[in-house]
Specification:
The strands form two sheets. The protein has a five-stranded antiparallel sheet with strand order 1-2-3-6-7. A two-stranded antiparallel sheet has the order 4-5. The chain has 173 residues and is α+β, with helices and mostly antiparallel strands. The longest helix is centred in the C-terminal third of the chain and has 17 residues, at 152-168. The protein has three helices and seven strands, in the order αβββββββαα. A hairpin with a 2-residue loop joins strand 4 and strand 5 (97-107). The chain is globular, with a radius of gyration of 16 Å.
Length: 173
């Protein structure tokens, strides 16, 4: 398959709401493979289709610690059904916000319904890093980023810094 180009802040597409998938076709199956290739290439543990510029409700995850024992998961049209009252905090990074890591507090456990890559309807209860990653990626599908958990001043500083980095990395030929 292929590694897709990542969309990064401040690109407006990251703020758009992704559309549900009605039927799982060849294009969606290829996209899922491409999302896994892209996520692994960039050493990520989660990726939403919107992060490669495609507004479809598809996310891929792999929170396994061992490269030799990958545990890829695909969630199509994921919907959080239940969140625990107990919270946990993880330092989160995002492939669409390079070199930025923020402590984010989220519900420790979540229950999500979804369709898997075979088209089967499923429900899963997740905790720990998997729960955090799943909530993070579902936020992407709804146009929400980790910087949205910050104050406006901090958020604006990060966006300004990333915008400068983007323009300074451009090469004119």
């Amino acid at each position: 398959m292929s590694v897709k180009e990542l969309i990064t802040v401040p690109d407006d597409i990251l703020r758009k709401i992704s559309e549900p998938i009605n039927t799982l076709q060849v294009n969606e199956k290829k996209l899922i493979k491409d999302l896994f290739d892209t996520m692994y290439h960039h050493n990520g543990i989660g990726l939403a289709a919107v992060q490669v510029g495609i507004l479809k409700r598809i996310i891929v995850l792999d929170v396994s610690k061992n490269d030799n024992e990958k545990k890829p998961l695909c969630f199509i049209n994921p919907e959080i059904k239940k969140l625990s009252k107990k919270m946990s905090t993880y330092e989160e990074g995002c492939l669409s916000i390079p070199n930025t890591f923020l402590e984010i507090e989220r519900p420790e456990i979540c229950t999500v319904s979804y369709i898997d890559e075979n088209g089967d309807k499923k429900e899963m209860e997740c905790d720990g890093l998997l729960s955090t990653c799943l909530q993070h990626e579902i936020n992407h599908l709804d146009g929400k980023l980790i910087i949205d958990y910050l104050s406006k001043i901090k958020k604006d500083l990060i966006i300004k810094k990333l915008s400068k980095q983007k323009t300074s990395n451009r090469v004119v030929v």
